[in-house]
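Private note to self, pasted from the team thread so I don't lose it. Backbone tokens:
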């Protein structure tokens, strides 16, 4: 793919405050590319990060034909820019596009566009431990018509955001509330792809959990709405009697790259990892019997996020006040893999040349 690069004439970086939160500041440039049904993908370019001019009739506003990815660029100990398993995100993006009746992007083009953009805005990658440059590729329908049908035109954009620690308290365990009422996904639905609509339908539960004083929602799935599924943007794992249990990929949960990488590492370290259904009753019984030594979420945004407390129907189930050894080892190993050139699993790391 031949990408046209038009460099910005302003330098925003000097006026951008020190990064603390998540996804609030954006770099100088963005990648954009347009799809027209009769022409296919056209006009790949890197230009100044700027507003878009869009008609109020644009179909994405009305019917949410929109997908995205989330990944990160890091600086390693040699000052090189590193991506973590970018082809996994490229594959998942393609899967999301197909599910939403959208045209997809070839995996090589997806990774190339990210690499070129990150290379240009390399100076924005923060270097303090736990920080990174968040990469947000996304695509949306741009037909200016209110009919409900797959759009004939689309826009693919990549924006970059320097991020601090996802959780302001660092690695302190979070509290999660099991929602007994709402669903974020169902069999035959879109729970296993990253489409925008999955997140808008999760916001009310997230708001209610926050109001009750909990950080995140733990979703239930299964035909009887009693199977542990996942957290807002993280997969979930439990260490129960030295076995690591995580929900299986049944088509209703997102196949996280961090989940997959964690399972590989855990098996290498000798843990038994079971990908299986677990009912909420089974989980709570294990917690009551003091058999759950750790619970943690896995996902790009926070990498590993320990869970200290789970609430269900007004009762709090306490797991731990501190990060446990399994979560800590995973967290540190991922940090090493991304930043140290002598860490294991070099094949997971792609250096942006
Ligand atoms: C993105 C996401 C994850 C985590 O996936 P990673 O590839 O590990 O970042 C898990 N669950 C949901 C619902 C997500 O959107």
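Design output:
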């Amino acid at each position: 793919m031949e990408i046209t690069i038009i460099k910005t004439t302003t330098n925003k970086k000097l006026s951008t405050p020190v990064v603390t939160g998540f996804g609030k500041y954006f770099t100088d440039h963005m990648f954009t590319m347009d799809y027209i049904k009769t022409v296919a993908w056209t006009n790949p370019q890197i230009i100044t990060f700027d507003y878009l001019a869009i008609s109020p009739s644009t179909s994405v506003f009305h019917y949410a034909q929109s997908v995205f990815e989330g990944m990160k660029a890091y600086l390693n100990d040699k000052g090189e820019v590193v991506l973590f398993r970018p082809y996994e995100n490229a594959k998942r993006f393609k899967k999301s596009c197909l599910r939403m009746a959208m045209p997809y992007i070839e995996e090589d083009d997806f990774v190339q566009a990210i690499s070129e953009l990150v290379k240009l805005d390399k100076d924005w990658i923060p270097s303090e431990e736990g920080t990174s440059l968040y990469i947000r590729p996304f695509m949306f329908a741009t037909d200016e018509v209110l009919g409900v049908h797959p759009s004939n035109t689309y826009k693919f954009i990549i924006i970059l955001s320097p991020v601090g620690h996802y959780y302001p308290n660092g690695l302190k365990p979070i509290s999660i509330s099991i929602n007994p009422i709402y669903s974020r996904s169902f069999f035959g639905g879109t729970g296993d792809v990253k489409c925008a609509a999955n997140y808008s339908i999760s916001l009310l539960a997230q708001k209610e959990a926050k109001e009750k004083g909990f950080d995140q929602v733990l979703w239930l799935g299964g035909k009887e709405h009693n199977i542990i599924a996942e957290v807002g943007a993280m997969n979930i794992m439990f260490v129960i009697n030295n076995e690591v249990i995580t929900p299986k990929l049944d088509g209703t949960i997102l196949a996280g790259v961090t989940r997959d990488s964690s399972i590989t590492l855990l098996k290498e370290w000798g843990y038994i990892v079971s990908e299986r259904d677990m009912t909420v009753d089974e989980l709570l019984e294990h917690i009551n019997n003091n058999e759950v030594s750790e619970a943690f979420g896995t996902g790009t945004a926070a990498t590993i996020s320990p869970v200290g407390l789970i609430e269900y129907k007004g009762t709090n189930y306490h797991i731990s006040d501190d990060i446990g050894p399994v979560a800590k080892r995973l967290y540190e190993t991922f940090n090493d893999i991304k930043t140290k050139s002598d860490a294991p699993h070099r094949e997971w790391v792609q250096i942006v040349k």
